[in-house]
Amino acid sequence: MTEMTQDVSRFDRIIERYERSEESLLAILQDFQREFHYVPEEGIRRLSEVMGVPASKIYAMGTFYKALSLTPRGRHTIKVCTGTACHLKGAPLILDTLERELKVKRNGTTEDGEFTLECVNCVGACAMAPVVLVDEVYHGQTRPSKVVDMVKKQVGS
Amino acid sequence: MGAINSIEELEAYRRELAAAAKPDLPTVLVCFGTGCQAHGSRRVAEAFMEAIKEQGLQVDVNIGFKTTGCHGYCENGPLVVLRPQDILYLKVRPEDVPEIVEESIKGGRIVERLVYRDKVTDEVVPHYSEIPFYKHQHRIALRHIGTIDPTSIDDYILVGGYAGLAKALTMKPEDIISEVERSGLRGRGGAGFPTGTKWRSCAAVESDVRYVMCNGDEGDPGAFMDRSIMEGDPHAVIEGMIIGAYAVGSHQGYIYVRDEYPLAVRNLTLALEAAREKGLLGENILGTGFSFDIKISRGGGAFVCGESSALMRSVEGNVGEPRAKYIRSVERGLYNKPTVLNNVETWANVPEIILKGAEWYASMGTEGSKGTKVFSLVGKVNNTGLVEVPMGISIRELVENIGGGVLGGKKFKAVQTGGPSGGCIPERLADLPIDFDSLTKAGSMMGSGGIIVMDEDTCMVDVAKYFTGFLVEESCGKCTPCRDGLPRMLDLLTEITEGRGREEHVAMLEELCDLLTWGALCGLGTSAANPVLSTIKYFREEYEAHIRDKKCPAGVCKALITYSIDPEACTGCRLCAKNCPQNCITGKRKEAHVIDTSKCIKCGVCKDVCKFDAVRIS
């Protein structure tokens, strides 16, 4: 119960930064996502209560927008850019390598909760293709033979 | 200083800034665009601060120092420009910095190993404006990017910022609209709708409230000009929007930015605050009695939200589903009020058009497509990055003169333009001028201006499958043609690329394309056929090779290729064998190696690590 109460105040701190208007819903959900690495069910309930908006509507947003996840994510997020330039320069092989070596499927989380592997559609850094983002750090010109070491080096595991 | 209360005060302020500026002061500009930051430009900037201190120099007294937006030549980052000499240093590492300070800044000499070197003539080209990548460009939307500090409104005002707004505020709204109409500016988001016409229709609708919006959602894979403009020159977008708002009579604006672009969100937020502080935004702008403000709305990573009606639903705080557009957004857009929505690049052009006049702008470009366009030239090309050129430049000029030709001397096969809504144009049509109408005629689209160069190692069926797969994921699923038609197309393309294609599949694809073009609700679905139809039209023989011969001529489709080692080229270095995750490469040291194809998973690691180019795909 204590944990729950604590969480509500964490949700409230985020909600308070915004106007009480439906226009703010998406931004608040994105901030939830940043802080908790997913959108917790309690967060949806709290937001629904404070804003007077049905939880079903907020839930619909949670499933629609790719930036939001309703399930907990790993401690580190690996985003493989699968934009056109990256695709042509070998992103599919990079993705295969990460899936195989980290034993995780795309959009899944490793069993130890260390990594979530995501595909993103173009991060707008096409000149550096193929691009992999590890916790928001950009790595350009990545290669299948080097990508796993690169990820592990950055997160220090 | 605080708020600027009149147009005269703005000009006086600009003169004040100019008087205090030291144009001859040696100045270091470090690129802080996303690409350069990824390459470590932040550390380069820190190294400069340290070296400057160590040399006993003082910033703003002996030396100027600025971090700027993206120069577009991202592949060669981190980029450093020295002014006033106009020297461009490429791939600068922190270790190079003391030498630059010592040699160039104090000694006035060029550090040759860091400047551009022509790949063909080996000639050294130290000056920014003489490098082929920049020489052929004509920058309007990108006019200030890379030269000003995007977080400083003074920097923007000093180079003439908000002068377009000042001029607009002395004009009648009606005359501004006419000016934009006569300039021939068409929407840079892709569809190319005439901007002035859009504004006029919006202004004509009876309403108490009107909105002006900026589409910064930029979901097109392969395009990043909007990102660069929002990050590198946010005030240009804001200034354009204020002018547009004044012209159509709007008091509230929105900028919808992808949340994947945190630097754009940050720089826009800072710019909005600074503009409000200076009295350029908010109540009673420049003492003229006109009031207008802008809010930022962060997108949630849904491609369909780049579509106007979906974007508006998303801003309102809903799921971003498009609606059927029997009634246009200029009549009933955001909150059902008349709304002008233009893209980032369109807005960035507006202040210059007002300032320099419609004739000036219309003198560039082609009959139907005036002015310049920013392209992101990426893929298998030597010089990748953002380039702004007059409309009507041919594909070949763009790829060869500015792009420096195809990467690694490979054969130029096609360009893909317009993202998932566009198509592939084959090399034999490369003399086609790039403008809205000729691209559409060729079965592609301008889209946001992504130009993706493809070489002989690109499989066109795979490309069609790639875009269709992209759209399957991004379709909102509201209408049946898109929800059911696209996955069926993807199934067929998958069958073909995996060697199970049948003769009739191509005709079935064409039929589904037709269904989507005529039946889908929004632009995402109606244009989804383009990548498939254009590749069938221009590269039918590749589809046939996959279907009839069960071969992928470009060597891309995994199910149809095998890896082998060329015994002539193999030196027996064992690197591939060591790296193979399947342990399926055997051979003695210094002897040719062999891949056991029954175990090979075609992961490509052997080809990636081979230093002798001995791994073959067939």
Can you offer a commentary on this structure?
The complex is a heterodimer of chains A (157) and B (618). Chain A is built from seven helices and five strands, in the order H-H-H-H-E-H-H-E-E-E-E-H. Chain A is α+β, with helices and mostly antiparallel strands. Helices cover 46% and strands 13% of the residues of chain A. In chain A, strand 4 and strand 5 form a beta hairpin. In chain A, helix 1 packs across helix 3. Chain B is an alpha/beta fold. Chain B is built from 24 helices and 19 strands. In chain B, the strands form six sheets. Chain B has a five-stranded mixed beta sheet. Chain B starts with 6 loop residues before the first helix and ends with a strand. The model of chain B has no long low-confidence stretch (mean pLDDT 94). The interface between A and B is large, with 50 and 62 residues.
Q: Summarize this, please?
A:
The complex is a heterodimer of chains A (157) and B (618). Chain A has 157 residues and is α+β, with helices and mostly antiparallel strands.
Any chance you could write out the topology, listing elements then pairs?
The complex is a heterodimer of chains A (157) and B (618).
Chain A lengths: L1 H14 L9 H12 L4 H11 L3 H10 L11 E6 L2 H5 L2 H12 L5 E2 L5 E6 L11 E3 L2 E3 L7 H9 L2
Helix pairs in contact in A: 1-3
Chain B lengths: L6 H14 L6 E5 L2 H5 L2 H14 L9 E5 L11 E4 L3 E3 L7 H10 L9 E2 L6 E2 L6 H4 L17 H6 L4 H7 L3 H11 L11 H10 L6 E6 L8 H8 L1 H15 L3 E6 L4 H16 L15 E6 L9 H8 L23 E5 H13 L1 H5 L9 E8 L5 E6 L4 H8 L9 E6 L5 E4 L9 H6 L8 E6 L4 H15 L5 H18 L7 H15 L3 H4 L2 H19 L15 E3 L9 H5 L5 E2 L7 E2 L9 H5 L5 E3 L1
Parallel strand pairs in B: 1-2, 7-8, 7-10, 8-9, 11-15
Antiparallel strand pairs in B: 1-3, 3-4, 5-6, 11-12, 13-14, 13-15, 16-19, 17-18
| Sheet having the most strands of chain A | 5 strands, mixed
Distance between the termini of chain A: 34 Å
Q: Specify the number of helices of chain A.
A: 7
The number of strands of chain A is 5
